[in-house]
């Protein structure tokens, strides 16, 4: 699965996307966040407060408990501040 | 129904955008321009967008506003990239038969845009440092009002 990062999340992680072969027991966005947080410091820091993050699955906004089955891209970013 | 949406790096001419509504037998056209303002030693804003979702979210916003306020035309242009003080960030125009709907639509579109459209602003300061702007609770409250 491709994971893309935007704004402050992208800066903290230090890259704009990753591609992962996720283990079969990773089923929801929350599972992915937990998996990424265990990787190394930048991921842990960027994802430390999932409540303050927003997610999209294949370009549609989604909640943390949403299933990632048949999803090709997860986007992770902070609450938006346009206008 | 006239609809124009753009997410672009280049500047826009608000006057030119407004003139596009002329001659369309509309009773009212209201508009809003957002500009980079001088505050806390800011010299520029850096605006990040999502290559697909930003446009999609603006389309959804237009559809909502068109239906709710009986709009006859709507324009939303949002820039991204590095914008210096005084540069235009956003332009929104709404056309309808009467002023009330056009003006209400502008306020609603701006309120919703601040919470629903994937765009992120970073302040760039004179000393070379920068800071991501955080979403305000007041913006969330205003957006959920309509």
Q: Report the mean per-residue pLDDT of chain A as an integer.
A: 97
CATH superfamily of chain A: Beta-grasp domain
What gap, in angstroms, lies between the N and C termini of chain A?
31 Å
Strand order of the largest sheet of chain B: 1-4-6-2
State Rg of chain B: 16 Å
Largest sheet, spatial ordering of strands of chain A:
2-1-5-3-4
Distance, first to last CA of chain B: 23 Å
Give the beta-strand count of chain B: 8
Please tell me what the overall shape of chain B is. Answer: globular
Shape of chain A: globular
Structural class based on helices, strands and sheet pairing of chain A: alpha+beta
> What CATH first level of chain B would be assigned?
Alpha Beta
Major sheet of chain B: size, sense and barrel closure? Answer: 4 strands, mixed
Indicate the topology.
The complex is a heterodimer of chains A (83) and B (146).
Chain A: E1 2-5, H1 7-13, E2 17-19, H2 29-37, H3 41-46, E3 54-57, E4 60-62, E5 73-77
Parallel strand pairs in A: 1-5
Antiparallel strand pairs in A: 1-2, 3-4, 3-5
Chain B: E1 2-8, H1 14-19, E2 28-35, E3 42-49, H2 53-68, E4 73-79, E5 81-84, E6 88-96, H3 99-116, E7 119-125, E8 130-132, H4 137-143
Parallel strand pairs in B: 1-4
Antiparallel strand pairs in B: 2-6, 3-5, 3-7, 4-6, 7-8
Helix pairs in contact in B: 2-3, 3-4
